[in-house]
Write a structure and sequence with these properties.
The chain is about 35% helix and about 30% strand. By secondary structure, it is of the alpha+beta class. An eleven-stranded mixed beta sheet has the order 4-3-8-9-10-7-1-6-5-2-11.
């Protein structure tokens, strides 16, 4: 089994503001937003105790990883604890194995090393579930999320999409259009010049051929056999 990091997650206070900031600074987006006040979210626990909590998340692809932003909702959760203790910031990474199995061998591995679950829950209607583990001193305090997806389970559809990728201002759009038209005009001028040059060469070639054709041969006769 090869364990890979598939997601990096940041806890934020304001999901919309965070999406806009990452779009403005890095140009990241669009975002798939999951509102777990409406989406199926069951069997939630915090440190092994049943607890009801909600959250909203936004996910976008960055390189080969997912970046997830998490805004805590109602109820006590590890997200809320993190905000209270540390403020906004990097909260966890998701680790999965690269095999096709639907089990959660990463969770088994973490448990075997003495790491305990911090929080867990099920999402969607097909039985997919997640668990957060406290990496403790062994992993430098890193929180690790693992995921279990039953075979054939469909991907959870987002509640809605948000596109924060930068768009040019009207002035920038006009400038880009003018530059594009200028390049087209330059291309046309170059094409005409090349065409004229080729035509001149062709005419010169025809004149040379004509001169050769009328050159008298030695002895006063016409050229040719």
């Amino acid at each position: 089994m090869a364990v890979v990091v598939t997601q990096v997650a940041v806890v934020v206070r304001d999901l919309e503001a965070a999406m806009a900031a990452y779009g403005r600074v890095f140009g990241w987006g669009p975002w798939r937003v999951y509102d777990f006040t409406d989406l199926p979210h069951t069997d939630t626990t915090v440190r092994g105790e049943p607890v009801d909590y909600t959250m909203r998340t936004a996910v976008t692809r960055v390189g080969g990883l997912d970046l997830e932003l998490v805004e805590p909702g109602e109820g006590p959760s590890q997200y809320r604890e993190f905000l209270a203790e540390h403020g906004e910031g990097l909260h966890h990474v998701m680790c999965q194995d690269d095999s096709a199995t639907h089990d959660d061998p990463v969770a088994t591995r973490l448990t075997a090393h003495g790491m305990v679950p911090l929080m867990s829950g099920s999402v969607g209607d097909a039985g997919a579930s997640y668990t957060y583990f406290d990496g403790g001193p062994q992993l430098g305090g890193l929180t690790v999320e693992t995921m279990r997806n039953p075979p054939g389970a469909p991907h959870l559809e987002p509640s809605y999409l948000v596109d924060t990728t930068p768009r040019p201002s009207p002035a920038q759009a006009t400038e880009a259009l003018l530059l594009k038209e200028s390049r087209r005009a330059d291309g046309r001028r170059v094409g005409v010049a090349v065409g004229q040059a080729c035509e001149g060469v062709s005419e010169l070639g025809r004149a040379d051929d004509l001169d050769v054709g009328v050159e008298p041969a030695e002895g006063g006769g016409e050229a040719g056999p």
